[in-house]
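As a point of orientation, let us examine one representative protein, giving the amino acid sequence and backbone structure tokens.
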Amino acid sequence: MPRVLLLLALAFGYALCHVSPPMVNGRPRGGLIGGDPDPEGPTTEDQYMVYSNITQYVDHFSNNTSATWLQRYQYNSKFYNKTVGYVFLMLGGEGAIEGSGDKWVRHEGETMMVWAKEFGAAAFQVEHRFYGSKEFSPLGDQTTESMKLLTIDQALADIKEFINQMNKMYFPNDKPIWITFGGSYPGSLSAWFRETYPEMTAGAVSSSSAVHVFVDYYGYAINTEKTYRTVSAPCAEVIRTAFAEIQRRAYNGADARTLLKGTFNLCDNFDETNLSKSIQFFLQNIYGYFQGINQYTGDNRNNATRSGLGVPAACDILNNAKLGTEVDRVVAVMNLYDSWYKPSDSGCRPNSYAAFVKQYSNTTMPDDDTISTRSWIWQTCTELGYYQTTDGGNKGIFGSIVPLDFFADQCIDLFGPEYTLDNTFKWIDQVRTKYGGADAYRGTNVCFPNGSFDPWQDLGHKMNITNNNVDSWLIDGTAHCADMYPARDSDKQSLKDARQRIHDHLARWLSDAQAIRQHSSALCGVAVAQFGTDNCNQAQFLACNSKLGDFWRTDTTTAWKDLATLDRITQSLIVSPYTIDSWVNVCNGFSAFYGCLGQAQIRNCLGTVGLVGSGLDLNTAYAYQGFIADWDFKCGVGFWTMYERKVLTTCVESTYVNYQQETAAALTSYQTAITQDPANACKYAQTLMNAWQNTYMKGPCRTVNPAQAGWIGCQSAREYSNAQFRHCKHTTTCASPSSVDAVTRVNAETGKTEYETLPFYEIVNDKAVISQAASWISE
């Protein structure tokens, strides 16, 4: 399935060296050829452009070979601002990026390049394995054995290695922030890369992608009919009449087929020895014209579509009875298409399935069209499916002309007997399960725009996932990847709004990632100011820790070396029947410990740098700070929320002790996510908050006051995560009770944010009372 602008075929007037169908499994004639001879908007000057290649492993997942190949890329440095470090990557797909294929990173009117200029981003495009020329291919041939290295997993690993090499080559000290872009199949890659390697990027734009890989995609024909019918219902009925008549003639004897050859200007006679396949090939090719016209209708992708090649123009022809019969009008539509994309040197149309199989069985990589088409068919046979059948029923305007076995037979004919339909179903199911399809996608920070006229839309992601910042929507009145093309004043308002919607997501992803980048860069320089020092008085710390153990009547010797030990200690202190004094005992222990240390040593010993200085790794130090912040909340605002609502005391304590498995699992997922992808920490923090909230709501408190209990769980997670990612307090939220004071305040005199220290509680007549008031300290 082709991607925007790059997809239709050759610029008008250019002849192919062999005949080629208008569409092959959704991929237009000529494949990805790059761009127009007359790009809209300025073109970046040569001095900013790099055309080069890197060395990639042929097989990223094998320990038995170290073979390498050269992968091409293009780099535009014109707008790069190293202060912010933004980098945009356009992923290559079903065609070579050479020649005018550089449009995505050189033509400054393309949507990604407009945003690169605005945000100060470098721009790259990288070529997909097995779609470049022979010398830039993993093995230099396309035998079935070699093609086994053309997989989604290998392509994603290529992208990861590409980013790593570019970082070392061009941005060694910049801490760059990457965003991937792609449309159609590269759009799916963009989403899958974000899901598979979230630590590599801050977000992904996945335009008109078909992430829900599927074998028998008859929805393509249904959506194609819907577009023609939306533009003109009479037009759709002309198509129905014409296709029924064409099919009747095709099966009406050899003489009738000879007449069809003349009517449709076919290069080849029908193969009377393999008639069924020959007629299927003929009918599929006619249907392909209507596919190609619909797939890019109204898009600003090239001179053809800008000049009106689309469904409205086709319907104008089909509705014009002066042009002859319905069949004559179908031929006229095909002539319109061929006026832009010549089908062969002589202008005749291919009609030999045998010649088709022979051409794309060539494994020597003789030309771009053969290379790209063979690779694309391989991918549809082994991992994508995408067979555009007309199996949706006889009521469709195209009839039941293209059955599933038409595509299944291609796999066997081109790659061998093991590539059966049963295996294709099995392999595609495995891919859909692995990446989640459209129903269980697991990535974060992803946009999924699709067009309402796009026949691929039913395989796209359509479900918004707020917690993961995944936004999916249909752009009314647009087709395939319309958001990626240069903007025009005449664009539909829905398309203008879509570009703005993507832009706003992009701005937010970059802003969040920038906050992390600046925080990381500043850590060493301002550690003393923000996170304490490593001047911890170890003798005092050990003495105070001993007192903590005496207070709690437990061994705390390793409590500040092994967080799991400290966690188990606090759990053990909350005992049945879960009264308030258990909670007070834990809080008083912490208060006594902090009081022994004093404010200076709290910062020196328990600050990030102090914890690392004691021998902990940075992630563990942050985990300790989260744990401390959580208990600051539990012994502060959280304590009073629970105490003032006495019915919550028992159920909240019971949840804390008895639902550790659930909360710990959510915490582990959070820690894994932020380690791999710190740029999106706030999103993962919100996920953690939601998980803890659900646990507290659905546990013992579900019959007491689930909303209040859920707030306690959510706010505990919020304090935990904010200890490391302070900027997240601006974006993460819990529904706080109106009677609860804030955990922080701004000092009116100094203007600084202050944090509440722990009060000291005592039990008097079975009630918790403050014996030592809380105080506020500056950040």
